[in-house]
Amino acid sequence: MSTPVLELAHGVVGYHGRPVLPGVSLRVNAGEVVAILGANGSGKSTLIKAALGLLPLTAGSARLFDTPLGRFRQRYRLGYVPQRAGAGSGVPATVTELVSAGRLPRRRLPWPRWSADRAAVTHAIAVVGLTEKRREPVGTLSGGQQQRALIARALACEPELLVLDEPTAGVDAASQVAFAGALRHFVDAGGTVVLVAHELGPLAPLITRTVVLHEGRVVQDTAGAAVATDSTTASDPGTGHHDEPPAPSPVGWQPSLIQELPR
Ligand SMILES: Nc1ncnc2c1ncn2[C@@H]1O[C@H](COP(=O)(O)OP(=O)(O)OP(=O)(O)O)[C@@H](O)[C@H]1O
To answer: Where do the ABC transporter domain residues begin and end (predicted)?
Structure first.
């Protein structure tokens, strides 16, 4: 029997009384690499925030590592990189300093456990390919490198679950490839990944399952990677605003719009 890592059961979430998730259920097991796809505003970010306890559920329940969210205390077991996190603007911290901050959930008194902490930070930076940049202020790095530094920060506490909200949005091709390599490393070591994406790009071969959201509901849940071939998953990076979701076609959502990719 697979071990559940993240579970949302009939979760209802809304903003200012407006329901966004009308009762969504999702269970992710250890070792899965789940891509959550869907149009702008379909509720992808809301779903992962609710599953992590960052947004309250109006109804339903959530569990992390088989523990009800309200009783879950082992935050070091998960790493979360929010959407458009932005690592560096105006912050003089170096890559090493930023990544070291990610180590904090693992630290216990008495402080410090230097060797283990240093090794974890050094390793996380190496895995995302930023060793040569480790002493540079984060603000001087490219957007893709900053994103990799944020991933390294999440990896530094040696999580078992990584939750990434559009980790490659606006990221240059080289950084996307480096990021995919870091994720492969994490997955090969037994990690579980949930990521929100518009385009999978170099991440596609890693994906073991694709969940598609439409208007807050899971409309497709299939093995392997899939990619949308129409505008329903087009991103809106220019404004950051949410487009209205497309009107449902007379026959409803068409799974045929999602193509299976080779694994
Ligand atoms: N803080 C908020 N306050 C009010 N409404 C919000 C808030 N955050 C999101 N929403 C609305 O909830 C709906 C779902 O948003 P969400 O960000 O979860 O979608 P998404 O699928 O992640 O979209 P995107 O791909 O554009 O990031 C949208 O209609 C959005 O405008």
So the answer is: 6-240
